[in-house]
Amino acid sequence: MKLYHSAQSRSVRPRWLLEELGVPFELVRLDLGKQEHKTPAYMKIHPHGAVPALVDDDLKMIESAAICMYLADKYPDKGLAPKVGTPARAAYYQWMVYSMATLEPPILQIFMNTVMLPEEQRSAKKSFATIADVLEQALAGKSYLLGEQFSAADVMIGSTLGWAQFMGVLEGRPTLQAYVARLSERPAFQRAQVD
User: Fold this and answer.
1) 45-58 pLDDT, tens per residue?
2) Cα–Cα separations (whole angstroms), residue 15 to 70, 86, 109, 145
3) Alpha-carbon distance 91 to 88, whole Å?
4) What is the DSSP-derived secondary structure letter of residue 37?
5) How many Cβ atoms from other residues are within 10 Å of residue 134's Cβ?
6) 120, 134, 158, 168: most buried, per Cβ within 10 A?
7) Which residues, other chains included, contact 1 with Cβ-Cβ below 8 Å and sequence gap of 6+?
8) 40 sits in which H/E element
């Protein structure tokens, strides 16, 4: 398996999951500043010229959430996805999709606003507050989204909340800060952060 990766990008998610799984993989680092993700060879793997991309034998995959779901299902013995057809699997699907459809957009908007717009034009933090409330409620009294069992859903939600924490968006949110801290202590997470 090969994972095409660039530090501080969405490719950290499948890298983290691969580290959690403890399975062999080749990490192919792409320097986005040098446009290595836009070469004709890489564009054959990822038609948008973005990261991540996973190549597993003849299979080529893009989209961090899809890659994480594939990997969790490929190694069911590792327990990073609940069994199909169970209520836990339904919650798992919910949080996997939530990470991309609901959580990431305002975090991305905050990031872009912080970088691109003057202070008076920034409004993304307000939309994040409602999402943060939902996540705090979901994590109340639990170590992870599905209870005490770590799953790929924690990789997806946790990676985006880590980004939010880096930008100072989690200030005054002790439940989310503690969750990010717990996830950050995981050895696989730490290995995934090394360039």
Assistant:
1) 998 899 999 999 99
2) 13, 27, 24, 20
3) 5
4) G
5) 12
6) 158
7) 18, 23, 24, 25, 26, 54, 55, 56
8) helix 40-43
